[in-house]
Amino acid sequence: MRYLSFLLILMVLAVGISYGQEAKKDELKIGWNKQLVGTLNFSQASFDNWAAGGENSWSALFNLTGSFINKQEKWNWRNFYKLEYGQSRIGDAEARKTTDEIFVESEYSHNVSRIIGAFAAVNGRTQLTPGYDFSIAPKVEISKFFNPAYFRESIGLKYTPSDIFNTRGGFGLKQTVVSDTSFAFYTDDLDTDDLEKLRNEVGFESVSNLNYKIKKNILFTSNLDIFSNLKSFNQIDVRWDNLISAEVIKYITVSFNLQLYYDRDLSLKRQLKQYLAVGLTYSLL
């Protein structure tokens, strides 16, 4: 996996160097720019009296990604949302989640110059269904819808050298919320006697986005999200999401996703997730 991470870092650097040459191909028009893409991936295997052995299995992954961007000469209003859910099952074992995420963000930016602007943004992130720790018998529920949920508000400066790359940084607020005290381990302050269902953090936010067409049918997107509460270096939250998707034929897409996540409140070690999928993709807007 470390080699895959290194490869993606090299791709980000290469694309960052060449984005200026491709900017005109992906320019947004004045007014509303709408996009809504749905992806469905499914795989299945079954065995009956198969001498070589094997277990029946299936896996499914659904992704819905969209954006509504209102571009004007002096300002831009960008709305982005993502819904992703997947499950898999092997043999007689219970079906388990492979991915589960709801993410919504709204950002307003006002141009100070051609490439520099001031911005204000809000976003929220949670999941759809319960998550379990299967290493413990019986399984233990460790998360569910709105347990936890993360919200952020930020304001600062944004750098947009082209329509395929932008980065922003500034003052940020972060809230971690649970609706059920059973999940208060996400939010509770151990230094107090009360059981808190809300944790507030004040700090610095940085978000960088890259959306680059390597070729006409190959798209590379990368999002690097950093938040620091300015208390110590090892308390910097990092979420780096990379996706390469290639349209083999119309409606059939191969995609590879690699996500790195570090949040000391959840784990002292970095978290890593990757998947390779082949499935149907359809542009609804």
Give a quick summary of the entry.
The protein is built from 1 helix and 14 strands. The protein has 285 residues and is mainly β.
SSE order, one letter for each helix or strand: HEEEEEEEEEEEEEE
Q: Largest beta sheet: what is the strand line-up?
A: 1-2-3-4-5-8-9-10-11-12-13-14
- How is the main sheet built? 12 strands, antiparallel, barrel
CATH fold type: Outer membrane phospholipase (ompla), Chain C
- List low-confidence stretches: 3-7, 17-25
Q: How many helices in DSSP terms? A: 1
* % residues in beta strands: over 45%
Proportion of helical residues: under 10%
User: What count of domains describes the coordinates?
Assistant: 1
Oligomer: single chain
How many strands appear in the DSSP assignment? 14
Shape: flat
Please, what is the average pLDDT? 88
Helix/strand class: mainly beta
**Distance from first to last alpha carbon:** 35 Å
The first-level CATH class name: Mainly Beta
Account of the protein in words:
There is one protein chain. The protein has 285 residues and is mainly beta. The chain has a single domain (2-283), classed as Outer membrane phospholipase (ompla), Chain C. It is 7% helix and 61% strand. It contains 1 helix and 14 strands. A hairpin with a 7-residue loop joins β11 and β12 (236-249).
